[in-house]
Amino acid sequence: MGQEHIGELSVLDGSTFFVSDLRGDALGERTHGLFYRDTRFLSLFKIEVDNLPLRILSVHEVDYYSAAFFMSRELPGLATDPDLSIVRHRFVGDGMHEDLILTNYSASTLNVRVVMTFESDFADLFETRSGRIEKRGKTGSEVRADSLLLSYEREDYRLHTVIGFEQTAELKPGRAVFNVAIEPRGQWKTCINISLVSGKEKIRPKYSCMAFGKALPQMSQSLDEWKENAPELESDWGLLNHTYDRSVVDLAGLRFEVEPGDTERPLAAGLPWFMALFGRDSMITSYQSMILGPVIAESSLRALACRQATDFDDYHDREPGKILHELRFGELSYFGESPHNPYFGSIDSTILFLIVLHEAYLWSGDFSLLRELKKEARAALAWIDDYGDQDSDGYVEYKKRSSLGLDNQCWKDSSNSVQFADGRLAEPPIAAAEVQGYVYDAWSRLSGVVGEAWGDEELASSLHGKAAALKERFNRDFWSDKGRFFVQALDGEKQRVDSMTSNMGQLLWTGIVDQVKAKPVVNHLMASAMWSGWGIRTMSSTSGGYSPIEYHNGTIWPHDNSLIIAGLVRYGFKVQAAQIISAQIEASKYFSNRLPEAFAGYDRKETTFPVDYPTACIPQAWAAAAPLLFLRSMLGLEPDPVRRELSVKPLLPPPIKHLWLRGVHAFGRRFDVEAHAESSEVIEE
Predict the structure, then answer these.
(1) Cβ atoms of residues 491 and 428 within 8 Å
(2) What is the pLDDT of residue 3?
(3) CA 434, chain centre distance (Å)
C-alpha cells in the first residue's frame, strides 16, 4: 500500500520554508522538506512514538512562520482513550526550531521510545519541482557529540544541515532515539535546532526553546508591527474582512532578503516553487498593494534596479536595460546548468518597472524615487526601443535565444499559452496584446512627469507622441472586426492569434483601448464563455485549446481578475467590476480566506464551489495582493500627487452597505476612507 495522504501544511519566513504533512512530518515527497534559498536542506524529518500511528487532533498555522501540531498515539482497541499527548511547535526562519512536548495523562508512569529520522537530498528546487533529482556531488551523514550532520559537496559548492538536540539522545547517522520515562501527569520536552551552512554562510535558527507565542521574525517590521501599520478594514461583509486580513499576513510572510546583507525586502513570488525574486510578479504585486503605501514598490524597484542588465548574453536572454525575470541561488544556477542567476526571459518586467515607478510617485507625491532611479528608468526606456521591438514594426515582441529559456515570455509563460482559436501554437517572435498596452501605459505615464522630474521636456514630448501613435496602430492591428474583440497576439508572420483570452481585459487597465471598443470587450468578458461565475477565465471556453484545468488556457487567476476589475472601473463599467469582486471574495471562502495563484475554470452552476488547480501556489504574492486592488477599485480610490489628496468614487458590491478603510498610506500621511451606499468621505488622520 502507498503512503497515506493526509494533506499538507506550510510555514515560511521569506526564502526559508517548511512543507510537511499534517502530523508535521516531511516524507521526501516532491514539495516536502526544509528549503532555504532554492535548496532543500531536509527532505525527511519524521517523529515516531513507540512505533505507533499518531492520531491528528488539531493542526494550526499560528503565524506565517510558526505552526502547532496536536496528536496522540493510536492505541489498540476502538474504545481505548489516548494516554499520551504529543505536541510539536514549529518555527521557521534562518533554519528551523521545533519543540516536542509529550504529556502523560494516565495514572501510571509511561516508558516511551521517541525516534527521529532525518535525511537530505540537498536538491535544487528545480529538481524537486520536476521530480528528477540527479546529484553530481557527494552526500554524507555523520554523528557529532550532540548533533547530527548531513552534508553535500560538489567541487567548491558545500552545504550542511546540522541538527542539534537539547536532551541527550542515542545518535546514529540520520537518526536520534530518546528513551524516556514520563511520570503520571508529567511532561517530557526537548528542542530540535536545525542550522544550515551554505558555503561560508552559517544560518542559525532565529528562535529558541519553548518560544511558542513569543517569537518575532527578524524583519524591518515584526508581524504585529506590519499588521498595525497596514490600513484597518471594517465592513459589514465579514468574508471581505477576513480575506483582507489573510492577505496582509501572507504578504508579510513573503517578504525576504534577496541576498545576505541586503537592506531591501521585496516579496517572493509564491510558495513553494517561486520563493525568489521575480520581476513581473514583484511589479504587479507592488501595483496591487498601493493602499499599503509605496513601501513594497520602493523596495522591489530598488531590488530590481541594482540587478538590471548592462550587457548582452544569449544564454540568459539578457539585453542592456532589461529587468530580470527570475533570480535563483540553487546548485543548478551556481554551476550554470540553468540560466536563472539571473534569467531575463520576461518581455514585460522592464515595462512594468516603469509603470510601478510612476505609480510609486503618485502615492508618495514627490519625485525622489524617480530621480534616484533615473539612470535605470532611462535604460529601460531605451530597451523598449532598441531590443524590445525586434523587427522595428512598432510592437514589442519576444523570441527566446537561450537553449533553456522560456518559449513564451509574457505573463502566460507556459509553452502552449499563445495559440490560435483552432488550437495551433503561435510561432515567435510574438507580440502579446497586453504587452503593447503596458508600453502605452508606461509611455503615457512618464510623458507627464519626466519634464519636471528629470528636466527633459524633449523626452516628455517624444513619449507622448509615441504613446498616441501606438494606441492608434494597436486598435487597428489587434482588433478583430469579425469577433469584435482584441486578439491575443501577433505571431512571427504578423498573423492575428485569434483566440479570445483574458488579456483583452488587462488592456482596459492600461488605457490603450479606444472608448468605442470598450463595450464589446466587456460584453465578451462577462458572457458565459469567459465568465465562470467565480471570475474571468484566462481563455474562452469556445477556443480550441480551452480546458478549465489548463494552467493558462481556462483557469481563473485572481491577479488577472484584479487588473481586469481596475480596467473596468477605468472605463466606467463599475457594475461589472463589482460583480467580479463579489465572486472572487466568495471564492476565497473555499480556500480558507486565501485566494490561490489560480483555480479551475469550471462554471459555477456546474460545481457550486471553486475547484482547486492542483499545483497552484498558496500563498502567492499577486494572488494575496488581489483583494487589496479589489478594495481600491470598489472605492474608486485614486491619489492626486499635485494636491496631495485622495479621491474616492465608490461602488460597493452587494452585500456591502458600509466600508471603512482606516490608515491608508499616501504622501507620507495616513487617510481614513469611509464609504456608504449613498455617500463617501476621505479624512486625513
Answers:
(1) yes
(2) 46
(3) 20
Task: Say whether pLDDT at 135 is over 60.
Answer: yes
- What would the mean pLDDT of 138-144 be, rounded to a whole number? 96
Distance CA 194, CA 45 (A): 11
Coil, strand or helix at 286? helix
334, 321 in Cβ contact below 8 A?
Answer: no
- Give me the mean pLDDT over the 148-164 stretch: 97
pTM: 0.95
Looking at the predicted structure, is the pLDDT value of residue 465 above 60? yes
Give the CA radius of gyration of the chain: 26
- Return the CATH number of the domain spanning residue range 8-203: 2.70.98.40
CA pair distance 408, 551, nearest whole angstrom: 13
pLDDT at 2: 39
Question: What residue ranges of the chain are covered by domains with CATH 2.70.98.40?
Answer: 8-203
C-alpha to C-alpha distance for 662 and 685, rounded to whole angstroms: 9
b (16+ CB within 10 A) / e for 629-659: bbbbbbbbbebebeeeebebebbbbeebeeb
Q: Supply the DSSP symbol for 494.
A: -
User: Mean pLDDT over residues 390-418, rounded?
Assistant: 97
CA 432 to chain centre: 23
**pLDDT exceeds 50 at position 301:** yes
What is the residue whose three cell numbers read 500621511?
669
- Look at residue 4 in the predicted model and tell me its pLDDT: 52
The phi-psi region of residue 429 (left if phi > 0; otherwise alpha if psi is between -120 and 50; otherwise beta) is beta
Per CATH, the number for 390-520 is 1.50.10.10
pLDDT beyond 90 at 376: yes
- Spatial CB neighbours of 186, under 8 Å, sequence gap ≥ 6: 103, 104
Per residue in 166-213, pLDDT (tens digit) is: 999 999 999 999 999 999 999 999 999 999 999 989 999 988 775 555
Residues paired with residue 124 on neighbouring β-strands, in sequence order: 39
Residues of the chain with CATH 1.50.10.10: 390-520
Contacts of 460 (CB under 8 A, 6+ apart): 446, 447, 448, 449, 450, 451
* Contact yes or no for 193/175 (Cβ under 8 A): no
